[in-house]
Amino acid sequence: MKRRDAITQMAAASAALALPAWGAPSRIVLGQSAAFSGPARALGEEFRKGAQLLFDRVNAHGGVGGRSIELQSLDDGYEPDRCVANTKKLIDSGVFALFGYIGTPTGVVALPLATAAKVPFIAPFTGAEALRTPFNRYAIHVRASYYDETAEIVKQLTAVGIKRIGVFYQNDAYGKAGLAGVTRALTPLGLEPAGLGTVERNTVDVDAAVKSILAGNADAIVQISAYKSCAAFIRAARKAGFGGTFYNVSFVGTLALAKELGADARGVVVSQVMPYPFTPATLLAGEYLAAGKAAEGDKFEPNYSSIEGYTAAKTVVEGLRRAGSNPTPESLIAGLESLHDFNLGGFFVDFGPQKHTGSKYVDLVILTADGHVRR
Fold first, then answer.
1. Please, are residues 84 and 346 in contact by the beta-carbon 8 Å criterion?
2. Which of 32, 78, 151, 211 has the fewest CB atoms within 10 Å around its CB?
3. What pLDDT sits at residue 25?
4. Are both 3-143+281-349 and 146-272 of the same fold?
């Protein structure tokens, strides 16, 4: 049985039970709607795997306050309509909180449902400003924003004299959030994007985008889309004669992009919002690598998406530990808000009553032709 089929069947079985999740004294249930099928499935699969590594470790040591943590995951295929249906199902089943949603177009339709139901919406895998502004008590972000990522990309490009920067973006809330970030970073410099091109979500029809952006004579191209469409664009642009550099934000899925491109990955830059996951350079990365090896042995393949799931899960667990002996969704929010400059192991999160974005950390890495990631 394929892994994504197993995940789908497991999720369906969990939802069918419709048990009262956080009211049961023996468990705390978190609900997740994410892509476990379609062109973005690697993001959902890896994020969930990383989170499960942490939850399994905590549960093996008695859970939190004697309660085990259960993650119920439903497949939305990175489509908003399916995400809405999943979110309603999870809320109706009584989940303690929503956790680890994948993507902007799905996140922006789920957050209003969570807010109306007063259910915490924690650690979505997106940096979109639409989920951060205006402040929302029920939205809690672990990662840096796309504004943070695109500002770092533009800073690096302009520091070496590159001013003609094109933008290839997904034609939805995610892509437009990234485009807004690039434009926001360029404006104070008296610059604007040198060519724009779009692709529809869950497609790889990039020919028109290549033609449009190359007509602007860009020297570098920032990509705001998922890994399959970004890979298709890179190949098509190079075939059309583009000799500049490609930059991607973290949501692309770094190793998924590298695998999709093969040798064509050489020189592609990706911004990251999590610590380097391939060596124990930080305590957090070392812990994550040890957990992965214990679970899968030599088959374990670390990557940025799964360490983000691990980091997000570790943040939630710390919030639960501070939520009191009889935690509620509201006391979980208060517990997370008490994490002031909290060290997760070389990666810090800083929350407060009016500060629900825990990190502004951004790093830049480069892909190699043999599928590796170099800092």
1. no
2. 211
3. 59
4. yes
